[in-house]
């Protein structure tokens, strides 16, 4: 199990570390080593399921699972939500063709170089600290879901209400522990080498809550050797 933290997100050309996590949609464990020498894998590292932006990102990624599988690439989705809460959620919101894993201690996030952003009163030091005024100045534009541009905190509350997502004590604890966790996706070849990535670290915050373009990911996937 990888315990060390990368100082930056993994980039194309880096070798992915091994991490071993609890599998959500089947018993036992799942690890990066499971795919090495067998298939490429898209590793998605997300905040807890209490985050509506992550739920949408996960759903968008899952929509590509069958197309990726046709290219010999598996999909692994990792969430910070504890295993039992995650299993309950995915029982009602299954991810066909996707392997899901629980990582409440952010082991994989740290190993892949994704920091847990701290919210401060006034200090900004991206990607480790961001001030509340800076967050409040952001505007989420999601036509068809948000009635108007909103700051991320208000948008999150609105979307959870829209989705009918009721936070449990487990969700509250996850949010307290990893509410600022930055997320990312990493496309690994069958040798465990990163060939494409998208993270919230990049862009000095402009990638926050964004979803990568499907065309960009699928183009990278098409270049992986079978």
From TrEMBL:
GO terms for molecular function: oxidoreductase activity. SUPFAM superfamilies: Thioredoxin-like (SSF52833). Residues 10-223 form the Thioredoxin domain. Pfam families: Redoxin (PF08534). Transmembrane segments: none annotated. It comes from the Bacteria. InterPro entries: Redoxin, Thioredoxin-like_sf, Thioredoxin_domain. This is Redoxin.
């Amino acid at each position: 199990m990888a315990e060390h933290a990368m100082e930056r997100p993994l980039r194309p050309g880096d070798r992915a570390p091994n991490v071993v996590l609890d599998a959500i949609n089947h018993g036992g464990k799942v690890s990066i080593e499971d795919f090495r020498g067998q298939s490429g894998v898209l590793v998605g590292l997300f905040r807890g399921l209490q985050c509506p932006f992550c739920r949408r990102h996960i759903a968008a990624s899952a929509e590509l699972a069958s197309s990726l599988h046709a290219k010999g690439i598996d999909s692994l989705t990792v969430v910070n939500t504890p295993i039992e809460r995650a299993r309950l959620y995915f029982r009602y919101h299954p991810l066909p063709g996707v392997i899901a894993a629980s990582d409440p201690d952010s082991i994989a996030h740290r190993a892949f170089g994704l920091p847990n952003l701290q919210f401060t009163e006034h200090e900004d030091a991206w990607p480790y600290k961001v001030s509340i005024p800076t967050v409040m100045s952001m505007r989420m534009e999601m036509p068809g879901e948000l009635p108007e541009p909103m700051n991320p905190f208000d948008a999150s509350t609105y979307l959870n209400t829209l989705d009918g997502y009721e936070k449990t004590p487990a969700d509250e604890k996850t949010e307290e522990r990893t509410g600022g966790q930055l997320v990312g996706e990493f496309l690994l070849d069958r040798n465990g080498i990163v060939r494409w990535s998208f993270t919230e670290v990049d862009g000095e915050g402009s990638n926050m809550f964004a979803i990568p373009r499907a065309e960009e990911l699928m183009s990278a996937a098409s270049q992986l050797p079978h």
